[in-house]
Amino acid sequence: MQTRTLTSAAPAAAPTVTATAAASAPAPQQTAARGGPALNLRSPAHRVERELLKLALQRPELVAPAFDAYGTDEFTAPPYAAVREAVEAAGGVTGADDDFVTRVRSTAPDDGVRALVHELVVEPLRSARGREPDEMYAGMQLVAVRLAAVNARIADLESSARRLEAQRDDERSAAVRQEIWTLTQYGRSLQERGAAAL
């Protein structure tokens, strides 16, 4: 299974997500993978990525098959990206069975990622009002991660377009602007239609 990246020709795949700035108060930190940076548990981006990974490990049927099309670059925290890679190496959520979590742990690259997988498996899901997570809740997490990725890609492309316009490279600038337009439409579709747009 190959991890995909977002292009204007394939809006269902996704780009690198830029983490949202944390609150001004000092954020609690957690080192989740050996040698990896600490996770910011107050970062909205990290929180939603964590919740999506918990769903993938605890309730894979709720996020299949869409989760399997998500790239590791949609997870802004490197430890979360490592867990996403381990899920992919274990066969993805679509084929999850009783041994799925064991396979994910065995494909994890190191003890730090294995510990994070265990943490994500036992940590309760944060569904609204204490209800059991359902497809609607899972869809909200899928859309939030994808929309953040789309918005980050648009920001990157806007920067590229400005550079190209400053260099008077009209042909390449036009191509970048077309990609921005396509991604903007996809982002609007995600906002309006939710998981149906994935």
Report on the structure:
- The structure is a single chain.
- The chain has 198 residues and is mainly alpha-helical.
- The chain is built from 7 helices and 2 strands.
- A two-stranded antiparallel sheet has the order 1-2.
- Strand 1 and strand 2 form a beta hairpin.
- The longest helix has 32 residues.
- The N terminus is likely disordered.
Descriptive tags:
single chain; 198 residues; mainly alpha; two-stranded antiparallel ribbon; 7 helices; 3% strand; globular
Short description:
This protein is mostly helical and 198 residues long. It has helices at residues 44-58, 60-63, 78-89, 100-107, 111-122, 135-166, 170-193, and strands spanning 29-31, 38-40.
H and E string: EEHHHHHHH
Q: Average pLDDT, to the nearest integer? A: 84
What gross morphology would you assign?
Answer: globular
- Provide the helix percentage: 40-55%
- Structure class: mainly alpha
The major β-sheet equals:
2 strands, antiparallel
Number of helices: 7
Outline the secondary-structure elements:
Elements: E1 29-31, E2 38-40, H1 44-58, H2 60-63, H3 78-89, H4 100-107, H5 111-122, H6 135-166, H7 170-193
Antiparallel strand pairs: 1-2
